[in-house]
Amino acid sequence: MYVEIIGQRNKTADLSEIQAFVSSHPHNTVFQSPAFFSFYAGLRYYRPIYFISKNKEGNINGILLAVIIREGGGLLSLMSSRCVVYGGPLLENDAPEILANLLQALNRHIGIKALFTQFRNFRNWPEVLTVVFGQYGFQLRDRLNLLVNIQDESGIIAGFSESRRRQLKKGIAAGAVARQVRNVEELKKLYGILLVLYKVKVRKPLPAWEYFVQFFNGPVADGNGIAMVVEAENNIIGGIVSPVTRGKTISELYVCGLDQEWPNHYPSVVATWAAMDEGRKMGVQTFDFMGLGKPDVPYGVREFKLRFGGQQVNFGRFARRNNKLLYAVAELGYNVLRKLRRV
Length: 343
Description:
- The protein is an alpha+beta fold.
- It has two domains: about 1-140 and about 315-340, Aminopeptidase (3-Layer(aba) Sandwich), CATH 3.40.630; about 145-315, Gcn5-related N-acetyltransferase (GNAT) (Aminopeptidase, 3-Layer(aba) Sandwich).
- It contains twelve helices and 16 strands.
- The strands form two sheets. Strands 1, 2, 3, 4, 5, 6, 7 and 16 form an eight-stranded mixed β-sheet that branches.
- The radius of gyration is 20 Å and the shape is globular.
- The chain starts with a strand and ends with a helix.
- The mean pLDDT is about 90.
């Protein structure tokens, strides 16, 4: 058994075998697909890396798509670097030896290129595999999430809280209409709303404009994602951007709405519901809210999300600090900036 590594410079690499493995895997996700490898590869501060496990016959038996993310160049690049794995790895028969080989290759290759490596889990891992993660320096930390069954149209709204159903009804009656983004100009307006939201309320870095253009021209155009806006009186007042794992899951990547400026239209509520309904029409089973924060720790949008019903889960995240000293310095600086409301 051996591991091949494919980086973004391998532009001529044939990813069809990887796609076949991902598509046929019971835990497949678009976040581990060649579509997202290509998406990341087109972004300035994102560096995707495929780790491909193969048996002695040369057949794939495991894949892991990791992406090193930075917030800019120079010192900021060093102090913000992290390696993230969304929904992976995908293993043949959940074999511990395959996971061990992939983690060994990951740790060696990443080294200190990223301050930490984090696995954002989309499922509960078997105990035997949790042990393997631990052997390679990864600790499992609690992280809540919310999953909503969207297979039945009436069942979606029936799962909402009474107040959420009322808000949706009022918003639609007031004239809020959700539809697909038609062009880059509309996407730019949606991005503008997100920029204000992240600067004033969320106070976390928002990906650069190129991220959303690349997502629109890549995953959305290829049927691996959607971008929707909420419109009222010829104004774009909200919207949502969501990756799609065909037949399985639609995920809330970014959502926003001018809820204070348009209080009778509830654009954030309409946008979230619209993505659920669009996913249902596409044959998707589940809407993934992509996070509810840590248990017993205040999280601003938790209550907003919970009113859409669904099932709370705690798949957690595996994390490993690759450079403990720089990580501590970066964490201190980040917390200071947050208190100053600069990030």
